[in-house]
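Subject: Ig-like domain-containing protein

B.,
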Amino acid sequence: MSGAPPIGAFPQTPVAASKRGPVKAPAAASPSAPSPSYPAAAANARSTTTTRSSPLPVAPQAGASTTAGSAPLIPLHILDAPTQRLYALGFYVALLAWKFYNWAQLVEEDTESFWLFLKWIAIDCAFLFGLPELRIPWLELSQPFVVAAFFVHAVFDWLLMFNIGFPWQAWILGLVKIFYDRELAISEHNVKLSSIIHNSSLIMGRQIINILPEGSAVLNPDLHPFCLGGDRKTAPIPIFFNATIPVEVELIRTDLETNQQESIKLTRVQIRDIERKAKRESQEGVQTVVQFDYPAKKPGAYRLGRVLDEYKLEVQRKNPQTFVVPCPKAWVGPPASPGRCLGDLSDLTLQAEGIPPLKIKYSRTINGKDHSFHFQSLQPEGFVSPLGTLRSTSLIGLDDEDISWARSQRVPVGLNESMHASGDWQYSVDEVQDGFGNLVKYDSPADDPEGRPKPKHLVQNFVVKERPQVRLEGCDLRNPLKVAKGNEKELPVRFGIAGQTPDVTAHSLTWQFSPIDTLTESGDHGDVVSIGSYNAKNARDRPRISAPGLYTLKSVSASSCEGEVQEPSSCLLLNPLEPKLTIRSEEIPDTCAGNSIGLRVDMDLIGTPPFIVRYDVISNGQRRSERVSIPGLRYQMDLVPRIAGHHKYIFTHVGDDIYSGQKLTGSEYVLEQDVKPAAAALIQHSTGKMSSCLGDEVTVDILLLGEPPFTLEWEIIHDGKRKLHKATDIQSNSYQIKTAPLTQGGEYTLGLTSVQDTRGCRNFVQDELKISVRRQSPRAAFGQIEGKRKVLAVEGSTVKLPVRLTGEGPWKVFYANLNDGPPDNPKILERTVRNDNGYLDVKGRGTYTITDVWDSQCHGVVDPKASRFDVDWFPRPEMSVVLSHGVSQADDGYVLEDVCEGDVSGFEVALKGTPPYTVEYEVRHHPLQGSSSLSKKKFDASLGKESIQADTAKAGLYTYKFTALEDNLYSSDRHFKPLVVKQKVNRKPSASFAKPGQTFKYCKSEQDNEDGIPVTLTGVPPFSLEVEIKHQSAAVPEIYRTPTINSHSYEIRIPRHQLRLGTQQIRIRDVKDGSGCHSMAELGGPSVQVQLFEAPTIYPLETRTDYCVGERISYTLSGTPPFEVWYTFDGTERKAKSPTTSFRRVAESPGEFTITSLADRASECRAPVHITKTIHPMPAVRISKGKNVRVDIHEGGEVEILFEFWGTPPFEFTYTRSTNARKGQRSQVLETRHDVSHEHSKIIRANQEGTYEVVAIKDKYCAFSTQGAEAGKKDAGGKAQKVIKYH
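Prediction pasted inline below.
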């Protein structure tokens, strides 16, 4: 054992000795022989006697003194001893780093110390006692050493895990933070806290002011607008130079279309021009301001770029932009057709182009009367422009680099108004203005000095024409046109245009034509219809038609305007038969001399009366033409010549109302005779009887035959009295006898007694005329029906009104319905009554009055007491549903209250009319599924009400449609409107668990997103359920009634006060749906189990709710770890896990941090909570838009320093003014100022030279400073805080 190493010491390693160099060998050994490796040395030791001396102890023999159990666990040929020791040391260092990490977490988060202590005691024990078992050379620790090392580690673990302070604790914690400064943030990512705290972007920008000599340059100070276009080729932008003579002037032009910037420098000639002006005005002593107008030739946004005075120093300048834009313009387009008709739409578009918003003014002239109109704020949809909020000017003080809003836009303006007046219309564009205020006026001819008209693109002229009107005149269905077969006739069209002379207006007509043999029985167009058209040159130019049939005008158009067809628009054209004539003749003898005195000719005619018969008379060699008009189809004519001799009659032509001049040929149309006329007298009356009214005078025409003068004798006989009368010296062949007034009624006889002519031959005449004189005037009156002049009849039937008439029939009775037409001028009807106890057939209701009466000859009187008769209808039968409880009226009928399957339901119908009634109806059943069924029913009723039992056997929609109603007077017809009654029969509801037998776990505190007990329902929502809750420890179950359920699936959430910790059984007892139907569940039906657990809780460590970015938000948890924490941040829900009872996160960004729920391992409950913390952003400030801006001013000038703040007002900020940095010199702080702003921006005017920058910013909640020592503060543990502050 003398060779064994001491306890606790590292044993010697042979390999290490070989690495230090070769062992000195005897002199015989070769100096160049290599040192043997460990296995080789061991082999030599076995075969060679050790006689050498060595300063090192002899290594143990591998084969003799070392057993197999003491060799390294990992063979050395796999991993040599130094590498194994390195790995063991690295593993120990890793455990130590892990231990320090847990300690840092303990310090930061105040987690559970005891469990960490036990964990590291176990880890250190396993490492220290397991290391010797590896038998790594030099790490074969003895048992006492391992126990002592374990005790030291246990004490160290106790100091660390229980956070017992010791002097070098802060130094170790700082060292850890240097290498690992990351913590979990709200986003569940590790963030570096220092990068959040030290944010250089919170304070940005610097304003540097240099004092220059006095002088300034201003571009367009009066804010004049400029535009280019038309006659404006250049825009003179004024530049004013105050107390300076520039040697270099640079303008920056930004292109409006591309946003590209162009640098423009004034030429030497222009600079010299400015210099001359400045020197000339300074000599005259007028002013020190020089104006130079720069001629801008391109549109764009112009601003002063750089202005150098004669000392090569920059001149103070203002940099607002002056916009030179294309001049606005407007035109009418695209061109429209100039022709319009009255009532057409103008359909016109005005185009405006320029910088929105645009204004356009146009005028509308109608027949010389001018009206002006404006359109304001014209711009494309979605267009946003600062000109809407700033005043319209070309100088806009905006630094926005995007000037796309200043590009020219084209905006169409639609005009679509009704052209209500005929004549000349003109739309004219007068002026247009863009958003900058550039105005372009278009002079009218009246304003133009030379009287030039406006260009065509600014004017749109329309000629609005009246629409034509057309109708037929003198022809309709009652008065057809008649034309000879094969001839044509003008269609009697009357054409007109309001306000115009229609004679010269060309127009087009179209009509429908149907041949006469294709017309319907009612006289309308039949199946054969053709379309005709005609283009008329003027109003007198009418189409000519010849084909018989019906013609109906359809349309008229003139000057491309469609017109109106007025009534009458239909005309019937007929072709009557051609006229024919048949004659017979006989001689007329003379009673005195016995000779023939003439011929009596009988004529029979065929055709359309009246007829014209032409004949030639040849008397004694003299020929003359005669004609006779015949009103009827038969005629008798006496051809009695006045002179004696041979007379020949030749009938040459016959014509009627349609045909004229039909030639007659043949011997039958030639008559001849030799006569000597004798005296005769004839009463010119066709029947020999006539009637006369009482008191009338009677006039009788007498025809005298012979040679005048004549003497005529006659007598009048009445009541047996005879009175003679005589007339002498009658010089003509005709004479008229006029009686005295016939004042007595009765029969009068006027008889001719004798006549003699110049020959003195007195001839006896027997011709007489019977005159019947009325004894009284005819009368008319209404009779009575059942003692009244009033009658009720069935609607639509013909009512016979009794009429009592006196006189000689037939009578013409004139009557009117006072309800037909205006009361003061009702429509007069005429009816011929042939019986003195006749009837007037009427078919309408109302009050009928007799207005006048005529009998066959005389005018009569109307009895005023019996001149009216009232006609009314029996009421038609009516049916309605009696509105009672459960019956309501809807737009399409009646609706019965919903019932359930098997319930008793019905309704009553009310009947009005003349009983008995017969009602037919049909019942249609629409089931919930499948096709519908229909059944027809019928019942008789004798009373005014009838009950109908509703069918509720099956669920579905029942529709009762009453299709027919009859009573004793009326049968069902088209006047009956079907009556519809609807009722919905609801199926009995049912409810069942979606997952019967399943066990549901809940927390004692209710959660927002917990799953309910799913239930499936059938029926009509809303539903209500009764649920039975049976706890294991309770004898009597509890009843829970659910709130209203509006769907067919529902999740039952039983209130916690009705549940107990542990297990309970849930069963459905009753279900009721929205229709009022309910059903009981079966006993012993399916059930589910519910288990109730306690829920974990969480508490914030601080009561405050406002935090700043970079601070830690800490909570403590109660329950069984590990925990799951759900929270929302800025609307995003996240989930975090905490293995301990503490929960902490770093606020890396602003927003609302709300913990919504918590779950632990034991209960599996997700307890809903609502703990909200507001994380506010760090306040930020920028000077001069966050840029380093250098401004050169003259003495006495001021610079506006713009401070822009981000955060929550009010803002407190500290800024410094230091010397401007120069080469080789450090900037020194000259002064420090503190200010407050209640807005997000503040402007401070400065006139002192220096560099201005912010060093600290504070808002309502947080603060930040670049001076960390001043902004730091100490917490309870004494550690330095970040520069972030919470207020």
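The first helix runs from residue 14 to 20.

T.
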